[in-house]
Write a structure and sequence with these properties.
Helix content is about 25%, strand content about 30%. It contains 8 helices and 10 strands. Strands 1-6-5-4-3-7-8-10 form an 8-stranded antiparallel beta barrel, surrounded by 4 helices. Strand 5 and strand 6 (about 100-110) form a beta hairpin. The chain starts with 9 loop residues before the first strand and ends with a helix.
């Protein structure tokens, strides 16, 4: 069965960096309100792997729009969960409009990814769903890909523990561990990474996501644990850590890749 995860079309996100000890306490707190995502059952830390291939222009325009704090911006990424050649790849557009996050996502057959990244519009047969929204999302992705002159730049991977509202997708709490980033200029879409760096060290990225009204218990949780909000942007922080200049195509072709610090290897 294809692995899919429902997403909220428009939502608000609050991010925090926490310790592993605090993550365990957060789990005990949120289980009073939310249920564990089905994909986490029976796995260590209740977590499943997530892989994202981020696309950007050679001057890293989308990266710099985030660094510069542009209120209205977007990111393009391909998301996959394992190496199974039969599993779909999800084309995702993540937009920020002022304080709100809007996401669109469309599943594509893996053997059609290269065709779409070369700028071709998607034939219906390459999609994993007949829902018109899927076709619309992939078409918009193709349009943004073209006007941005974007291509694969970075592979971001982590283990995600997700807690969801038992009745709908209006509230979601995720804890991401072992966040790694590596230069990746192809769409090979494999879990293996070439010289990854640990973006946040041993810290766990906690994200609370909601649509509509801010849940009162979110505020209670923040007071109990003394959370301080931060950005924790996996792609942007990963590129910054490696060095944005190393993602330029000419640098990658010359083989000037960042080395993995020995201290970081201990985390892997």
């Amino acid at each position: 069965m294809a692995q899919d995860h429902p997403i909220q079309a428009q939502r608000f996100e609050l991010k925090h960096l926490i310790s592993e000890e605090t993550a365990g306490r957060v789990r005990d707190f949120v289980r009073s309100y939310l249920e564990l995502d089905d994909y986490g059952f029976g796995k260590p830390h209740n977590s499943y792997p997530v892989h994202s291939l981020y696309l950007d222009s050679n001057p890293m325009r989308l990266y710099w729009e985030t660094i510069n704090g542009n209120k209205n911006r977007f990111k393009l990424r391909l998301r996959f969960y394992h190496d199974d050649p039969e599993a779909p790849v999800f084309f995702e557009i993540k937009r920020r409009q002022n304080d709100a996050i809007l996401k669109q996502r469309g599943g594509v057959r893996r053997d059609a990814v290269d065709w779409l990244l070369r700028g071709h519009l998607p034939p219906a047969g390459c999609l994993t769903s007949a829902d018109p929204k899927t076709m619309s999302t992939v078409q918009q992705f193709s349009h943004l890909l073209k006007i941005s002159d974007a291509s694969p730049k970075a592979h971001v991977a982590y283990l995600r523990e997700a807690w969801v509202h038992p009745e709908n997708n209006s509230v979601r709490v995720t804890m991401d561990r072992q966040v790694r980033c590596a230069v990746e200029t192809t769409a090979r879409l494999v879990a293996e990474m070439d010289q990854p760096v640990m973006v946040f060290g041993r810290s766990v990225v906690l994200e609370v996501k909601f649509t509509g009204r801010f849940p009162n218990w979110f505020g209670e949780m923040a007071r109990v644990f003394g959370f301080k909000q931060c950005s924790a942007a996996k792609y942007v922080d990963g590129v910054t850590l490696i060095g944005a200049d190393r993602f330029h195509s000419d640098v990658v072709r010359r083989g000037k890749m960042v080395s993995l610090d020995p201290a970081i290897k201990a985390y892997l």
